[in-house]
Amino acid sequence: EAGVTQFPSHSVIEKGQTVTLRCDPISGHDNLYWYRRVMGKEIKFLLHFVKESKQDESGMPNNRFLAERTGGTYSTLKVQPAELEDSGVYFCASSQVQGGTEAFFGQGTRLTVV
Amino acid sequence: RKEVEQDPGPFNVPEGATVAFNCTYSNSASQSFFWYRQDCRKEPKLLMSVYSSGNEDGRFTAQLNRASQYISLLIRDSKLSDSATYLCVVKPRRGSTLGRLYFGRGTQLTVWP
């Protein structure tokens, strides 16, 4: 069974540009999460989808970040316009609907804003 | 104050050594606790959940002290393959859905031959 997949694995963009990250969760996992790790810091929560609905978006840093999950399958995270401080590794994770005690992570997208 | 605090290390130990990692959490109402392992430039993976009574999985033993808000991980008979970053992870809320998790910065372990 395929795990959580993320695309692209790396992205280098200039300040002010737009980048869209994609996450495909494990099939059947209604819960989808975005996390981010900035260099030297801990992994931090961004938001949580249950199917296509945003359950918790309290971790989104500002309105330059937009996450969507149309149809409740894959999700995208768009950063527009990107700033230098947005650089980091963006992880997507998914978990089962009920009783899931494990979050399954993708390998992450390493974003560098120059 | 951070939700989860960990000593970042690094810990450098020889094969066969016993090593212990500690972590503290700030929210006394936190519900569930985990240790994740992350290899270099890879994704975090669940190593084990931490139960109130303590639990063991082979060479790994996890302990929880709710009164002190303290979690530990003990690795016995260290192997080269144990080299990784160990992340202390806390689920703050009740509920059957996993939900938001809080991560420590991780403790880096290197096991040398």
Report on this structure.
The complex is a heterodimer of chains A (114) and B (113). Chain A is 0% helix and 49% strand. By secondary structure, chain A is mainly beta. In chain A, the strands form two sheets. In chain A, strands 2, 4, 5, 6, 9, 10 and 11 form a seven-stranded mixed beta sheet that branches. In chain A, strands 1-3-8-7 form a four-stranded antiparallel beta sheet, with no helix packed on it. Chain A is globular. Chain A starts with a strand and ends with a strand. With 113 residues, chain B is mainly beta. Chain B has no helices and eleven strands. In chain B, strands 2, 4, 5, 9, 10 and 11 form a six-stranded mixed beta sheet that branches. A five-stranded antiparallel beta sheet of chain B has the order 1-3-8-7-6, with no helix packed on it. The radius of gyration of chain B is 14 Å and the shape is globular. The model of chain B has no long low-confidence stretch (mean pLDDT 93). Classes of the chains: A mainly beta (114), B mainly beta (113). At the A-B interface, strand 4 and strand 5 of A face strand 5 and strand 10 of B.
Present the secondary structure layout:
The complex is a heterodimer of chains A (114) and B (113).
Chain A (H helix, E strand, L loop, with lengths): L4 E3 L2 E4 L5 E6 L6 E7 L5 E8 L2 E4 L8 E4 L6 E5 L8 E8 L8 E2 L3 E5 L1
Parallel strand pairs in A: 2-11
Antiparallel strand pairs in A: 1-3, 3-8, 4-5, 4-9, 5-6, 7-8, 9-10, 9-11
Chain B lengths: L3 E3 L4 E4 L4 E7 L6 E7 L5 E7 L4 E3 L2 E6 L4 E6 L8 E8 L10 E2 L3 E6 L1
Parallel strand pairs in B: 2-11
Antiparallel strand pairs in B: 1-3, 3-8, 4-5, 4-9, 6-7, 7-8, 9-10, 9-11
* Straight-line N-to-C gap of chain A: 37 Å
Q: Can you give the mean pLDDT of chain B?
A: 93
How many alpha or pi helices of chain A? 0
Kindly estimate the percentage of residues of chain A that lie in beta strands according to DSSP: over 45%
Element order of chain A: H for helix, E for strand = EEEEEEEEEEE
Strand content of chain B: over 45%
Helical residue percent band of chain B: under 10%
Low-confidence stretches of chain A: none
State the end-to-end CA separation of chain B.
Answer: 38 Å
The two chains with the largest interface, and their residue counts, are: A-B, 28 and 22 residues
Total number of β-strand segments of chain B?
11
Quaternary = heterodimer
